[in-house]
Amino acid sequence: MSAVKIGIMSFAHLHAYSYADCLTRMEEVKFVGIADDNLERGRKAAEQFGIALFPNYHALLDAVDAVIITAENARHVDLTIAAAEAGKHVLCEKPLATTIRDAQAMIDACKTHKVSLMTAFPCRFSPAMVKLKEHVDAGDIGNVLAIKGTNRGKCPGGWFVDLEKSGGGAVIDHTVHVVDLMRWLLRSEPAEVYAEISNLMHHAAYDDVGLLTITFDNGVFATLDTSWSRPESYPTWGDVTMDITGTNGMIFMDMFAQNIVQYSDETMRTQWSNWGSNIDYAMIADFVSSVANNVPVSVTGEDGLRALEVALAAYKSSEIGEPVKLPLEQ
Amino acid sequence: MQHVAIVGAGGMGGVHGRAYREMLNAQPVAVMDIRREVAEFVAKSLDAEAYTDFDRLLERKDIDVIDVCTPTPWHKEYVVRALRAGKHVITEKPMARTLEDCKEMIQEAEKAGVTFMVAHVLRFFPEFAKAKELIDAGAVGRPAVVRTTRGGRYPSAWSDWFGNFEWSGGVMLDLIIHDFDWLRWTFGEAERVFAKGLVDRRIEHTDYALVTIRFKSGVIAHVEGTWLNPTGFTVKFEVAGDRGLIEFSNKTSAPLIVAQTKTDEEKPGVPIPESPTLKNPYFQELQHFIDCIETGTKPMITPEDGMRAVEIALAAIESANTGKPVSLPMTN
Question: What ipTM did this prediction achieve?
Answer without folding.
Answer: 0.92
